[in-house]
Every structure is written in C-alpha cells, then in structure tokens.
Amino acid sequence: FASVIYNKPLNRAQDSCSQRYGELLGTCSCQVTCQSLGTCCPDCKEFCLQISPYSGSLMGGKDFLIENTALNASSMLTCRFKQKINTSGYVAKDGKAHCISPLLYETGFIPFEVSTDDGLTFPYSGTWLSVHHSKVSDGEKCTLVNETKWQYYGTPNTDGNLTLTWTHQALATTYINIEVWGYHETGDSYSENWLAEWKYLYTLAREIPNTGKFSFIPVPAKGSYSTWDFGILRITPSNYSDGQSNIPSIWSSEHALAWHLGKDFRNDPNAWATAKCIEWDKKEEKLPNFMEEIIDCPCTLAQARADTGRFHTDYGCDIEKGSVCTYHPGAVHCVRAIQASPQYAAGQQCCYDSTGTQILTHDSTGGSTPDRGHDWGSPPFMKPPRIPGFSHWLYDVISFYYCCLWSDNCHIYMKKRSSSDCRTYRPPRAASAFGDPHFLTFDGLNFTFKGQGEYTLVESDLTSLRVQGRTQQVYFPNGTGAQVTGLSAVAMQENNSDVIEVRYSEDLNLEVLLNQRVISFSEQRWMDLKGLFLHSAADQNITVMFSSGTGVEIRGSGGFLSLTVLLPEKFMNHTQGLFGVMNGNIEDEYTFKNKTIMSVHATPQQLFEYGATWAVENGTSLFTYDTKFLLNNFFYGKKHNASFLPVFFPHEDPADPLVKEMVSLCDSDPFCRFDVLTTRSLQVGNSTRLSHQNHKLLVENLKPDMSLLLVISCGWLDHPTNGRKNGTNYLLGSTISFICNQGYELTESKERICQVTGAWSGDTPSC
Predict the structure, then answer these.
(1) Domains recognised in the chain with CATH numbers
(2) Tens of pLDDT along 560-585?
C-alpha cells in the first residue's frame, strides 16, 4: 500500500492513540506522518512516545527520557519491552518520565510501552534501538585503562595495579558498586536447548565514592568464579542489591578475564592456556563444519571494497583509519561478510596486503580467519550461535587467547580457522542512475530517461526485491524550471523487510525514512533492521545491505541523488525495470513489462515512452506521501507526468560562454556535457561527471580481468616436505617456485603457474 494519510474530519471523539501507536484509525491517525499532514488524533502526542537518547547497548541499564508526555509525579511507572521484559521507570523532579533499558540478547528497534498504574494497562508506546556492545560510543562505557594489561594479567611481565575510569555524572549517586559478570552458553550446540546467559558473579568493590576512578591489585577470584574467563564489569549505584537486573548501569567493554583467573593460571599461564586450547580443539572436532557454507572471499582488495552489498569494513583493520591491524600483521585492510551463513550463523573475514592480494592463514598468522559465530550476530538473535558479539567471543576470540596469545599453539587455532580462498567468489553486477537521470544497466548499456514521476528501477521475482525512484523537475540557478528531471527519492524493500526511503526534503536536506518515519543518525551510524542493515557514512553516503546480498548505495549531491545497485550472480535472468534484464546480453535491455523488447537503437523519444511504462502504481508504491506537495503531485497526480516534455537534444552554441567552461570541465563525458547544457549549472555537470567516473571505476574494480569477467584463483599451494616455496599469490598468471633444503634434490615441477582453467601447471614437487 502507498504510505498516505487521508485528510479526514476529526469528528468521532472516541478515536484514541492509546495502545494504537503507528496505526491509521477511522477518523484520524497515530502514524508518524500525521504531524506534517495535520491529521493526528488529538491525543497522539500524549500516547506516541518520543525519547532521548533513542539508543543504547544491548547490555541495558541506560536511563532515557520520555520527552513529550508529562506524567503525574505520584504515578507508579513501569516500562515494558517486547511485551514481556519489565523495568522500573520513575518521574523526575521536573515532572519528566524516565525508563531504564533492559538487558537484551538482540539488536535493532525494540517496541516498548509505559504503564502509570503499576502495570495494569500500558497505553503509552514507542521504540528503543538496541545496539551491538562494541558499536556503542566509548563515553557510554567505563574504561579498562590499558585494556591489554587486564587481558594479559598474570602472564610473564604483566602485574601491578589495574585502573577503571568512568564518567561519574552518568550515575546520579554518591556511592557505587563494581560487579563482575560472566557470559556462558549452556545446553547442546545447535539444538533447541542451547541458551545464552549473562550471569552476575561477584562484587569487586562495594560502596566506594563515585569519583570516576578506581584502582586495585587483582587477586584470583574465589572458588568456581575463577573458571569464568570471558566477561564484563558493571558499575551500579550502591543502593541496589547485588546483581539486580535492569537497573541504572555503566558497563565496561567485554574482555578476557585474565586478571581474575585462579592460581593455576598465574602459576603457569602457558600450561593452563595450552590445556584450554587442546580442550577447545577437541570440542571443535565434534561440531559441524561451518566452513562449507560461508561465502568465499573476494580475490582482490579492490573487489572486497567494491562489493558493498556483501562485505563491510572490519573495524579492527581499516585502510581508511591507518591500517592498525593488531590481529593481522602484514594486512592493510580486512572486510567481514555482512550476512551470517544460513544454517550455522557463521561469519567470514578476508584480509589483504599492500599489493591487494588476499592473505591466507596457511602462509601467515596475519591471514583472514573465518568465525563460527558471526560478530554481529544474526536474526532472529536471542539464542546461540546468534547472540551479537558474545557468541563470537566464546567460539572465536577467547579461543584465540588460549591458543595464540596466552600460549604458543597458534597452529592449532589456524587449523580450525583457516582462510577460505576465492575460488568460488563471483563478483556482483552493478547498475547506476545519476544526474538528469542517466541510467547504466547491469549489462552495461547506458541511456538517458528524463520522465517526471515514480518508476521501477529494478524488481526481482527471486526475493521480491523492489527499488523505486522518484524524479522531479530541475530548476535553473535563477529559479525557473528546466526541461529535465533528477532523482529526488529512492525507496526499496525485499521480501517482507523494513521499507527504506532516501529523499531530499523540500528544504533540500537529505532524509532517510524507515517505514515512513524520518530517522536520525546522530547516535548510531549503523542499524540492524528487519531483513537489512543500514549504514550512513559521514559524507551523505547511505548503504542498504539486504539479506540476499543485494547492496544499494545512495549519495546526495547538489540536490539530486545518485544511486548504485549491486546484485549477486544469483539474480541473473531475474530482474526487470529501467535497469534492464541482468543476463549478460545487451540486446534485451529495453524489455517492457509485457516482455516485448525494443531495439537498443531506439530514439530518445521512444526511450521516453518506454520509461513511462515502468511508472509504479499507488498500490505498489513504497514511497511516503507526508506533505501536501507530495500528495498532490505524486499520490493524487499521475505516476508519470505525460505533459512534461523534456529536452532530448540540447543545443550547443559555440558563442555561449558556458560552452567553453563545459568543455574544460567535462572533456568528452557526454552525460556531463548534457547536464551542463540542460541545467546551465557546472556544479550539476561536475557531480554527474564524478558519479559516472565512480560507476566506471566500480565496474572495473569488480571485474579486474575484463576478458574473463572474473578473477581466477588456482587455490593455495603447500611447500614440499624438506623444501620451501617462493610466492603467496595464487591468482591467474602467478608463478610459485620451489627449492629443496641442503642435501635434498627436487623431482617434478621446479615452478608452477596458475592457468586459465583454474588449475596449476605441472606436477606436485617433492624433495
């Protein structure tokens, strides 16, 4: 349905937003769009809660303010999350109500309600954004000063004081307690009874002044507590009881609890960790092999950075932040697969060296290591192995401490977490639209379509993917209308995912809407949503990553949007719309809805008529119509404005002073020239030129070897026993040579070359 709110008279007084947040009622609306349309129910502002801050760690304990509803100071406030988790609320001296967020085992927007009658009824409602613990800003946590020291405490040359600091204003109390919590998962792996639990262990310090700093010399924890090796610290006001859940709290980062481990660890950390490493290795033997179902890595760094629908920067090794790659020596950049694998919820990681070649663990400890538990967790969360951050710590991180950091057994770890190569990797195809809309299709055809309206850019029967674009008239610098259009909004959905819309508002601000509501990135730049992840970079660059691996990138520039859609290979022969039929054949790009095909040599006028047939209908529109302008022009108006006739062939007058500047700016780029002439703006032309360049570069990066359409990898080669090898590049054309140790001689191939067939030349050498 189109997201529109009808203007209906507010006559029936009984329509109320109590418990009806987000609904369209008979006489009025409780939807977010009602404010700009003036159709809200009289009590909407009272019952539809606005909160600040709107997000916090999934660990809970964050105090947030309810901004828009004044509640009675004597009210017994209860806050309820997901209709089942109750936390206590309170009304402050200024009459404002507050809630405390709960411990959750999931990320994303969580519905909550508020009761003022001690939990009898919950008429007030809103949403809270639960965030991955390591994506929360440092200021919201307490800091383990010199975190490495905490995590290596008791190993050789690591002892003395440990210090914890925090923002003391974050807790309105004079005295605090510091507690130790541990994380574990119980039950049988990959079964129904596999459960996750954060458990209070003991109180480290009681009733100490809330100064923002605490130092201590750690002693081994008493009794069974010392067996907990992964956990977290929590600071709470000291008037609450030990381990009380969902109270105001400041958590530390999750970490390896070396500092509290027992005497057996301190006496011989290497022996203790070796035993743990061997125990982990045995446990891994019994678990299913997750490696078979994770996606292979991109072959090159350029591909890894271009495939934004399926891979995202690993913050632990980022080329844009100076390549500080602590766990991956020799790497300049790593990426993680965005989606967890389907059955085991496992993760992939891919690391690259300065030449852009993938680093494999077979050759270097800096190689990429896949993960039994995806670091970001995966829907529906709640149970292992899908708990954001913490499942990953349990299977992939604490075991790295056992085998690689606290003892010298990294070969055991690397055997169970060896890098995938890129032999089955297939790059996605890209299509783009920008400027006075110029379209570059998945199969590489380009054309210009300047209709005014709302159109299907791509849709697919494979995953019910729909990406729709709205175009509006461009205005000359002097304010009069030009006879061309530009992309002003893009809306998208896949299967029954959330609907995302990116648009320019009427005052030219870039807005992102989630299910019709404008969202803010002021607290979080990354959001885990239903069926997709959403990321906003600082430079007005929005990326939507759908669960199919489809990526949509939208950039705002000069009042118009430029758009790129990346589709994995499985969408071959499953697309239609203005971006064409993705099948490697350029001849059928202009396919109509009824499957008839127009020649690729069609005139601009014929293209205009073709584009008009891809106008969306109100019944299938994903756009939000929340202003009078949008209602009148795009909801009640025609989806394709046939009376708007664009310029098909702009006139280039040599005497025009703009032409000379255009030539020096655009050179031979036809899109840039077209847009300068039709908009009389060098700025528009320049942004078109950059978008066109970006698209060409993207296509180039995704297919470095145009003749083969994919990068060929022959797979890892081992050195012969009693010999060594030179070279760690396993892509097409690479040579690996072999030398025997002194006193041995080589039989079979001295060197082997990676061939077009994906096989190595020659035979396996031996010494």
Answers:
(1) 49-131 (2.60.40.10), 141-267 (no CATH), 269-416 (no CATH), 429-627+640-647 (3.40.1000.10), 723-761 (no CATH)
(2) 999 999 999 999 999 999 999 999 99
